[in-house]
Amino acid sequence: MAFKLKTLILTGTAAFIAAVSGIAYAAGGGGTGDYKMEHKHWHFQGAFGTYDKAAAQRGYQVYREVCASCHALKHLAFRHLGDKGAPFYNEDFPNPNDNPLVKNFAADWTVQDIDVETGDVIDRSGIPADKFPAIYPNNAAARASNGGGLPPDLSVMVSARNGGADYLYNLLLAYDTPPPADLQLTPGVYYNPVMDGGKIAMKNPLSDDLVEYADGTPATLEQMAADVTEFLAWSSDPKLEQRKSVGFMTMLYLLILAVLLWFSYKRVWRNVEH
Amino acid sequence: MSGHPSTYEPKYAATKWMDQRLPIVRMGADFMTFPSPRNLNYWYTFGGILTLCLVSQIITGIILAMHYVPHTELAFESVQRIRRDVPFGWLLQPMHAVGASMFFFAVYVHMFRGLYYGSYKAPREVLWIIGCLIYLVMMATGFLGYTLPWGQMSFWGATVITGFFGAVPVVGESLQQWLLGGYAVDNATLNRFFALHYLLPFVIAGLVGVHVWALHHVGQNNPIGITPKTKQDTLSFHPYYTVKDGFAVVVFLLIFAFFLFYQPDALGHADNYIEADALKTPPHIVPEWYFLPFYAILRAVPDKLAGILLMIGAIAVLFVLPWLDTSKVRSMRFRPVARGFFWIFLFFCFILGWCGAETPDNMVPFMSVGDKGLNFTGLSRIATIYYFAYFVVILPILGLVEKPKDRPESITKAILGDSSHGAAAPAE
User: Fold this and answer.
1) Which CATH class, in words, describes the domain spanning B286-405?
2) B109 vs A11: CB contact, 8 Å cut-off?
3) Inter-chain touch A272–B426, beta carbons under 8 Å
4) Could you tell me the pTM of the whole model?
5) CATH class as words, domain B33-225+236-278
6) A121 in helix, strand or coil?
7) Any idea where the domains of chain B sit in the sequence?
8) ipTM beyond 0.85?
9) What is the dihedral of CA B209, B34, B46, B102, to 10 degrees?
């Protein structure tokens, strides 16, 4: 009996080691060459990690005032900002469409619509049910405005890069690294060692005090980079808090069930040598 | 359905009536009392785990299909919508994606179990071949399904895999176009892949039915590979194995839940969060982890067609394994030499997986200094040679020359020693 439990423990351990090394391998697989990425401890890490709401709120401000001049968030609607687990969730407004902050944010954007009377394309201010609008009318226009580079959509950016939040944070801070002497940079291309190949079409978007935070936090470069990363981490994985809390209860339930089944097994098999 | 005499007796008028017309209750009852060898260990639980995986994939898949849009312009967005707005979509979508990995993890354990304990040998050849067929359809289903989210890896994975068909002599190009529904992976491809991805799981379910039928006809193999001889050698499936499997299934679910809730992206690729772009090739096109060993075999030879033939051969060889292994002894427990080769085989399967994930020209750590030494192409060649040698050279020859250890007369004797006569049979 002890032997068979050993088999099970061995299998489980082997599976776990394989999985963890796989995760470590995937996490280390970024194309950052020799650049030493700073591994920041994020508030949303760990089994009980949640988003730092204040940081994500500041991050939204950075997105709105800086990133949004080129980058869209096409998979998000304004109402998502007020969902449970989102930066602007307010328990007084379980329906995010009623949340005054969300309404204000939406109204701050101009969205295209069709006038139902005339059929004309009109501009109006946003409502919570609207999606975040596109920044450029099409990709060609986006390229034309950015020296040929296409600013990627940021909705799932943190999930879309090896290294996740660390990648984005380091990318935003790595611009001051001096480029290698042999690197040829064409106009409109900048050096960033975190980028695969070291070349990036986005010039350094952040500098100290670029925004004035509504909550009075000093807007250092590091602060803004961390805040916007927190916000984009949320937009990539908006159900993280829900998933972790359901996950904890599920695993607890399974653990208790496993113990009960183990004792049932011992009882059913008590007279059977095997 | 099963090969053991039925012990079911209908008690009520209604069940008697039913039993004479369609003995479906009898079938269920016989299933539950099926005599199973009393020495099955936890490796024998994975058949049950796999059934659970299939059911879970079908249920989550059907719900996802209600919300997913198989169109190149909308597919990526519809997956995002499922994760953000569909009730419980945040749970079901990762459950389906992580579930695919869990399914393959379980099927690999199940197959290596079969290899180790000789479960493919007479009279279980057909059982084994049906299992190989299930695995083949699983691979197709997994590949088709990975295309559907329409991320960069979806698109380029589909482009690379369907490109293999183009290497078939003479008809290759037309075959490839026929599969894709065009000259390149596009909307027609996505539509047919979705249709087939919905169809194949039901083919698997049918094959699983036949697999279980064959299993119940010949009976389960067991860790010592000695066929049960007396009633003492076996136990009723219920309650003995329902409770034992139940425990193991819950342990498996704990591993599943860990990935689902805490590492949902760990088994996938970050690149698949980038929407498919036909004009932008990702720097490394890598299949899902469960295909990596075969991908390494494919790339082990410079010629495309030869690579494909090798990859097909790597799976085809499993189908004829019952006739390649010449040993009459089933379990590796009594084959010390073969057992050593088996562990080396398992080791090289992991090596192949590693090679599949790496860039072929990269040098292997610890086996190279600078650009001198072994690169991953070299390592995958060594591993590929061993993979095939194990099946077509080692197992056929070993069966003829190896001297197996003495085997116990029966399962009961193996457990209780020779003094087992009259040992208490379990209450039933």
Assistant:
1) mainly alpha
2) yes
3) yes
4) 0.93
5) mainly alpha
6) strand
7) 33-225+236-278, 286-405
8) yes
9) 50
